[in-house]
Write a structure and sequence with these properties.
2 strands; two-stranded antiparallel sheet
Length: about 220
């Protein structure tokens, strides 16, 4: 039997029906491999934009590294387990780490690691981050709306998007916004799975920004 790849469609769809038929007709000892959906184009574009920001802004162990170098580091950090093969000169080199093979969940993990690293290194992300979803409501007073910083719009209700919380919290112009994000996380949690390291990175970023704003208030007093 030749090797075949199928990307499943909706339940009951023609591709699923074909796969079921092939499985039923397959001879004994035929191998079947199931994988999660591959990373999306949106995830891939975000990853490369972030890699560009990191490569331009972060000096790592005295060197500037390319986007490709950083990609290898972050994908390796996600996968942890690395195989080494002796080269022609006998020196070992790592195998694998292709981002194109990552699933949606794995790519989310890579991006989360990059956000954590960027927060620790003070990276300014160049790509605009999607704002919190939520219905827009007219302010009670127009002068208050004009005076409010763009990233300090009222906090909507519901689960928190991790990346948006990281970006808005890190650039917040008021302690009230940081407290609102914190309360929302405590009440509703996140809209996607977030590791303990990711939660700690966000907590550190919010705490750092809160302290910066307090110092600014003290200097202005």
């Amino acid at each position: 039997m030749s090797r075949e790849l199928f990307i499943l469609d909706m339940p009951g769809g023609p591709i699923r029906q074909k796969v079921l038929r092939l499985v039923q007709e397959a001879p004994d000892k035929t191998r079947v491999e199931m994988k999660d959906a591959k990373r999306s184009d949106e995830q891939n574009a975000r990853m490369w934009a972030m890699l560009g920001d990191i490569s331009k802004q972060v000096e790592w162990f005295g060197c500037q590294w390319t986007k490709e170098d950083w990609k290898e580091l972050f994908v390796r950090e996600l996968q942890r387990e690395t195989r080494f093969m002796p080269g022609m000169d006998g020196a070992p080199f790592p195998l694998g780490h292709r981002s194109s093979d990552l699933s949606v969940g794995e790519m989310s993990g890579v991006i989360e690691i990059m956000f954590k690293f960027g927060a620790e290194q003070g990276v300014e992300w160049s790509e605009p981050v999607r704002q919190f979803a939520g219905p827009e409501s007219a302010p009670d007073r127009a002068d208050e709306a004009d005076a409010r910083p763009a990233n300090d719009s009222p906090e909507p209700d519901g689960p928190v998007d991790y990346r948006d919380a990281m970006e808005r919290g890190r650039t917040a112009q008021s302690i009230d916004l940081i407290e609102a994000i914190t309360r929302r996380i405590q009440k509703h949690g996140f809209s996607q799975p977030v590791s303990d390291d990711g939660k700690e990175a966000l907590r550190m970023a919010l705490s750092k920004r809160r302290n910066e704003l307090r110092e600014r208030e003290q200097d202005a007093a």
